[in-house]
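Weekly sync, protein design subgroup
Attendees: M.S., D.O., the rotation student, P.L. (late)

Item 1: inverse folding check
M.S. brought a backbone from last month's batch and wanted to see whether the design step gives back something sensible before we order anything. D.O. pointed out we never logged the input encoding, so this time it goes straight into the notes. C-alpha cells as presented (391 positions):
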C-alpha cells in the first residue's frame, strides 16, 4: 500500500555549509493500518510457525546451550562481515582459545564484542529490564567497545548529523533525523515496543521496529548491527523465542539490494507491506534453515558417536573428547584434558584416533601447542556464510 512519505523533512545545514533535507519519521504504527489479510496473513502465520518450530527444535537438542553458543558465534561473524571485518567462525573460535588467527586482531575483537553485546542484551532482559533505549545503548556500548568502534561514541546517541552513503550529506542516499530530534524519535519507538498505543503481533513489531531504527540511525556507527540484534532481542522479550536464535544477517546480505530499496520505499512511499512481505519471508527461511542446522549437527554428532563407540577399549576416552569438541569445536589439548578429567597423553591419543576416523583435523601442522577442529561440525555451521549476493 502506498501511503506517501512516512515522515517529514527538515532542512539542516551541514558542516560544508550546504543545506540538506533530513528525514524525521512519523511514529509507529503506520497510518492507515497495515493490510494483514490474504496471502500476507498466511505468510505471517507460516513465519510465526517456523519460529516456534525453531524454538522447539533447539530446546530438544541434547545440549541446547551448545547450539546456542555456536549459533551466536556464527551470527557474530556474519553480522560483522557485513560491516567489513574479515574474520571467519574458525578465527573467532581460535581467538577464544587464544591462538592468533590469520586475520587482523581488530577484526576478531570486533566479532567477539558482538557476542558479548548480544549476551549482555539477553541477560539484561532476563534480569527484567524491558527492551528499551537504555538497553540498546548498553548493547551498543559493548558492541563498539574495542577495535574501530571505540572512537564512535559507544553507548551514546549521536550528537551530530549523519548520512547514509555518499561522500557528504548533500550527496547522500538518505539523511536521518537531526540529532536534536533523536530523543523524541527514539522515545516514540520505545513506546511502540511497549505496545503504546496498542499491541502489535511480535513479528510485525520486529519488522516495523527494524526499519524505524535504521531510519532514525541514532548512533554514529553500528546502526546496522544493533538494528539486526533488535530482532532476536525483541522476540525474546516478547516470549516468542526462549533463546536469541533468529538472525537475518545471511538473508539480508544475500538480498542486500532489495533490502536497501525496501528501506527507501518505506520512507518515500510508505509501502510497509512490501517490506513486511520481504521480512516475513526472511524470517520463515532463516528459522527453517536454523532448525535444519540444529538437526544436521545432532545427526552428525550421533553418527560420529556410533563410529567412535566401535573403537573398543579406547572408545570411552575418545567419546569424552568428542563430547567436549561439540561444546568447543576448536580446542587445545590442555583445556580438553581439564574438561574431560583425562590425562593429557590420553587426550592426545584420543585426538589421534579421532583424526584417523576423519572426525578432527589438527590446524597448526606443528608439533607443540596443537589445535584441533571438529571440521564437519564447523562446516555445517559455516553454511551460508560465504560472501556474495543473489540480487
Ligand atoms: N538507504 C540505505 N542504504 C543502505 N543502508 C541503509 C539504508 N538505510 C538504512 N540503512 C541501514 O544502515 C545500516 C548501516 O549503518 P551503520 O554503518 O551505522 O551500521 P554498521 O553496523 O556499522 O554497518 P553494517 O550494517 O554494514 O554492518 C545498514 O545495515 C542498513 O540497515
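Designed sequence read out in the meeting:
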Amino acid at each position: 500500500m502506498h501511503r506517501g512519505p512516512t515522515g517529514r523533512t527538515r532542512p539542516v545545514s551541514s558542516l560544508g555549509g550546504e543545506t540538506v533535507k533530513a528525514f524525521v519519521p512519523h511514529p509507529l504504527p503506520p497510518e492507515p493500518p497495515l493490510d494483514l489479510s490474504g496471502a500476507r496473513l498466511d505468510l505471517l502465520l507460516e513465519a510465526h510457525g517456523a519460529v516456534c518450530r525453531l524454538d522447539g527444535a533447539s530446546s530438544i537438542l541434547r545440549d541446547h546451550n551448545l547450539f546456542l553458543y555456536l549459533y551466536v558465534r556464527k551470527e557474530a561473524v556474519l553480522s560483522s562481515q557485513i560491516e567489513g571485518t574479515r574474520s571467519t567462525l574458525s578465527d573467532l573460535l581460535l581467538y577464544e582459545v587464544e591462538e592468533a588467527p590469520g586475520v587482523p586482531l581488530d577484526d576478531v575483537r570486533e566479532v567477539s564484542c558482538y557476542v558479548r553485546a548480544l549476551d549482555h542484551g539477553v541477560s539484561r532482559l532476563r534480569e527484567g529490564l524491558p527492551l528499551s533505549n537504555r538497553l540498546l545503548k548498553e548493547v551498543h556500548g559493548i558492541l563498539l567497545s574495542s577495535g574501530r568502534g571505540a572512537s564512535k561514541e559507544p553507548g551514546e546517541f549521536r550528537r551530530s548529523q549523519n548520512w547514509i552513503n555518499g561522500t557528504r550529506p548533500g550527496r547522500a542516499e538518505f539523511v536521518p533525523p537531526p540529532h536534536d530530534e533523536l530523543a523524541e524519535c527514539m522515545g516514540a519507538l520505545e513506546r511502540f515496543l511497549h505496545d503504546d498505543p496498542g499491541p502489535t503481533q511480535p513479528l510485525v513489531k520486529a519488522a516495523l521496529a527494524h526499519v524505524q531504527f535504521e531510519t532514525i540511525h541514532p548512533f554514529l556507527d553500528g546502526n546496522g548491527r544493533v538494528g539486526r540484534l533488535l530482532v532476536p532481542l525483541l522476540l525474546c522479550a516478547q516470549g516468542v523465542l526462549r533463546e536469541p536464535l533468529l538472525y537475518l544477517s545471511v538473508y539480508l546480505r544475500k538480498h542486500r539490494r532489495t533490502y536497501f530499496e525496501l528501506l527507501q520505499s518505506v520512507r518515500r512511499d510508505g509501502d510497509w507491506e512490501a517490506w513486511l512481505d520481504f521480512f516475513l519471508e526472511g524470517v520463515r527461511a532463516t528459522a527453517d534453515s536454523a532448525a535444519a542446522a540444529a538437526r544436521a549437527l545432532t545427526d552428525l554428532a550421533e553418527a560420529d558417536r556410533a563410529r567412535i563407540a566401535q573403537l573398543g577399549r579406547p572408545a570411552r576416552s575418545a567419546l569424552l573428547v568428542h563430547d567436549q569438541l561439540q561444546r568447543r569445536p576448536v580446542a587445545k589439548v590442555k583445556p580438553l584434558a581439564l574438561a574431560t578429567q583425562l590425562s593429557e597423553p590420553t587426550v592426545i591419543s584420543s585426538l589421534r584416533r579421532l583424526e584417523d576416523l576423519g572426525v578432527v583435523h589438527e590446524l597448526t601442522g606443528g608439533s607443540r601447542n596443537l589445535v584441533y577442529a571438529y571440521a564437519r561440525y564447523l562446516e555445517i555451521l559455516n553454511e551460508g556464510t560465504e560472501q556474495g549476493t543473489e540480487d
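Discussion: The chain has two domains: 7-293, 308-381. The longest strand covers residues 7-13.
Action: P.L. to compare against the previous round before Friday.
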